[in-house]
Design brief:
The protein is of the alpha/beta class. It contains 6 helices and 6 strands. The chain is globular, with a radius of gyration of 14 Å.
């Protein structure tokens, strides 16, 4: 049984996805795969509009962190796959937990935020 759990954990980590509290963490490679597969995802950049304008994950929308708690629950649907992106990760964790606590099921945070994003950037 221990061996099976170890194998499952290794597969999650190798695939770019890891569990964190009630939401999941996804690394740059995992998000690029998810985007390439054409999955219906909503990428939410929590950084300030100025930083968002300088470059963001392609397809992302900007909901600045200070506005996010109120806007996220109004604008994001429970059945969407949602990926939060911030500067380095912690703000995304906080917002992801807010959604999970409100019955959102497919919520991710980009590990390391834009600091660790290795894909192309849109402006």
């Amino acid at each position: 049984m221990k061996r099976i759990l170890l194998i499952i954990t290794a597969l999650f980590l190798a695939g770019g996805v890891a569990l964190a509290a009630g939401h999941q963490m996804i690394d740059s490679d995992g998000l690029k795969i998810m985007m390439k597969q054409g999955k219906n995802i909503k990428i939410v950049d929590l950084r300030e509009p100025e930083l968002f304008g300088e470059g963001h994950v392609p397809g992302a929308i900007n909901i600045p962190y200070d506005d996010a708690p109120g806007r996220a629950l109004k604008e994001l649907k429970r059945d969407e796959t949602i990926v939060f992106v911030c500067h380095g990760g912690p703000m995304g964790d906080e917002l992801a937990e807010l959604l999970v606590n409100n019955n959102y099921k497919k919520v991710y945070n980009l590990t390391g935020g834009m600091k660790k994003w290795s894909g192309s950037k849109a402006k």
